[in-house]
Amino acid sequence: SQDATLVENLRLEGAIFPGKTDTTQLACFDPPPTVNPWNQAHTPGGSSSGSAAAVAAGMCLAAVGTQTRGSIIRPAAFCGFAGLKPTFGMVDRQGVILLSDHLDHVGPLAHTIADLVILLDGMTDQATYLPLLIEPVTAAPRIGWLTDFFESRADPAMQQALTSVRTRLETAGAPIRDCPLPKEFEPILDYHRDLMQFEMVQNMGADYDQNGKFYGPAISQVLDAGRKLS
Predict the structure, then answer these.
(1) Which residues contact 208 (CB under 8 A, 6 or more apart)?
(2) What CA–CA distance (Å, rounded) separates 36 from 53?
């Protein structure tokens, strides 16, 4: 076996890997037995389920996850800490089993933003610090608030929670500007789904043909749908 490049980089910086955490099958949709440490009746989120659960349970200070469609930031949110999807191409994916060549990212999960910066710096083998992160911030940050697309898709409880967060930010002095997304953004989820399904077939189709009986129902459905795209 051989370490992925990002793992080699982290080891060179002194990182210790106690083990491999569980994920949804092939980082797709079929869930593992992993539960949320805060409430075992709840999911930790996926696909980086084990990474998130391990950090939340205090088994490690930080973890590495992958994201094709929310699979770093969703588990981090579900488990109550920070997760980062880096800019595409920032983290070397050599050694990572890909679902989608154009959508897959590798990123860190940790308890604090400061820890994310340290971990990302080690993963990329280059300095990622910005002056904003190491110099005192004297002015309130300007915040763009995405409207319409996300608000209309959120449950009422989530809409209420977001409104509460916005109120707290404004009360603290942060200027917030509404940022409505253009109508061209409306079909983005459909475009994302089609690209993901198509590229999953390119990456996994041959193995699926030979070992399909070992694939879960959710990932099988995705691959079958991808075969209908051209």
Answers:
(1) 201, 215, 220, 223
(2) 6
CB atoms within 10 A of CB 119: 24
Residue 64 has pLDDT above 90, yes or no: yes
β pairing state of 82-83 and 143-147: unpaired
Contacts with 186 (C-beta within 8 Å, 6 or more apart), sequence order: 149
Greater pLDDT, 2 or 195: 195
The tokens describing 230, both together, are 């051209």
Q: Are 121 and 62 in contact (CB under 8 A)?
A: no
Q: Write down the pLDDT at residue 207.
A: 98
Q: Is residue 142 over pLDDT 80? A: yes
Distance CA 120, CA 117 (A): 5
Cβ–Cβ contacts within 10 Å for residue 142, how many?
Answer: 9
Look at residue 131 and tell me whether its pLDDT is greater than 60.
Answer: no
Domain ranges of the chain: 5-134, 143-182, 188-226
3-state secondary structure the chain: CCCCHHHHHHHHCCCCCCCCCCCCHHHCCCCCCCCECCECCCCCCCCCHHHHHHHHCCCCCEEEEEECCCCCHHHHHHHCCEECCCCCCCCCCCCCCCCCCCCCEEEEEECCHHHHHHHHHHHHCCCCCCHHHHCCCCCCCCEEEEECHHHHHCCHHHHHHHHHHHHHHHHCCCCEEEEECCHHHCCHHHHHHHHHHHHHHHHHHHHHHHHHHHCCHHHHHHHHHHCCCC
Q: What is the pLDDT of residues 184-219, one digit of tens each?
A: 989 999 999 999 999 999 999 999 999 999 999 999
